[in-house]
Design goal:
By secondary structure, this protein is of the alpha+beta class. 20% of the residues lie in helices and 28% in strands. It folds into two domains: 35 residues, no CATH class; 187 residues, Lipocalin, CATH 2.40.128.
Length: 260
């Protein structure tokens, strides 16, 4: 707690009876300068380490936990994925987008996600058994958020959850949808080649080929919710619960492919 100006003035006057010429402005001196003025041995004061510059980015309180978790679990999520979600404004329609998840130089998972219509860049944060996503659409400046069911597998092939984003309507309505991401290939280890492969995937149309969205997948991504469904066992809120989730690790019987 900082002393009040009145108390600081009284304290300065008291010190001035012991240290000739001491004034309130002397409180602005650094610790060594103040010690020298008061006749103390300034060399006994340990040198203060210079303040570290603030890291670029949002000052998130659990940054250290996020970094450690990404370094431990990040490899399980690296690769190329195809996502599918209900269209935000067109009923009975679905959207495909392709993503690349890759660790950067400090171990965080970078995300690129897009199609011929969108381009999203952001971060994937596996922590406490779940996967958080923070992204931005570089074409229109919209922020996007996701929360997915995680997996403890060494290599995750499918994960699903919920997303929140503005719809592309006049009011830019906040819209929550379900989403499923399925691995379609692994990173090659050559960053330039992986960037080119992602660009090829993301250049595709977001509209699924007719018949490519099965009835099972449609039912997994869209279901009835709300107050009228509660008495019959329905959900009150949109919720990708574990008993519904398709999140899973890799099937050891299926050979791995370097790319889609």
């Amino acid at each position: 707690m900082q002393p009040s100006p009145h108390n600081l003035s009284r304290l300065s006057a008291l010190i001035a009876t012991r240290v000739d010429g001491f004034r309130s402005l002397d409180w602005e001196r650094d610790l060594r300068g103040l010690a020298e003025l008061c006749g103390a041995d300034a060399s006994a004061i340990p040198a203060m380490a210079p303040a570290k510059p603030a890291a670029p980015g949002l000052p998130i309180a659990i940054w250290d936990q996020m970094l450690r978790s990404a370094q431990v679990r990040g490899q399980a999520y690296e690769g190329f994925f195809r996502s599918i979600r209900p269209h935000a404004t067109l009923s009975r329609r679905f959207v495909h987008e392709y993503g690349m998840i890759r660790r950067n130089e400090i171990g965080l998972l970078e995300l690129k996600l897009g199609s011929a219509d969108t381009a999203v860049e952001g971060w994937v944060i596996p922590i406490n058994g779940q996967v958080y996503v923070i992204g931005a659409d570089v074409n229109n400046g919209a922020l996007l958020f996701g929360l997915f069911n995680g997996s403890g597998a060494a290599r995750v092939d499918v994960f699903d959850g919920l997303t929140l984003k503005p719809a592309y309507n006049i009011g830019r309505s906040p819209t929550a949808t379900s989403m499923l991401c399925e691995r379609v290939g692994d990173l090659s280890g050559d960053r330039e080649a992986d960037d080119l492969h992602y660009a090829e995937l993301a250049a595709q149309s977001p509209d699924p080929v007719e018949g490519s969205v099965s009835d099972e997948m449609a039912a997994h991504l869209v279901w009835d919710i709300g107050p009228s469904l509660i008495d019959s066992g329905g959900d009150w809120l949109l919720n990708m619960s574990l008993d519904r989730s398709m999140t899973r690790g890799a099937d050891p019987k299926v050979p791995r492919k370097p790319k889609a």
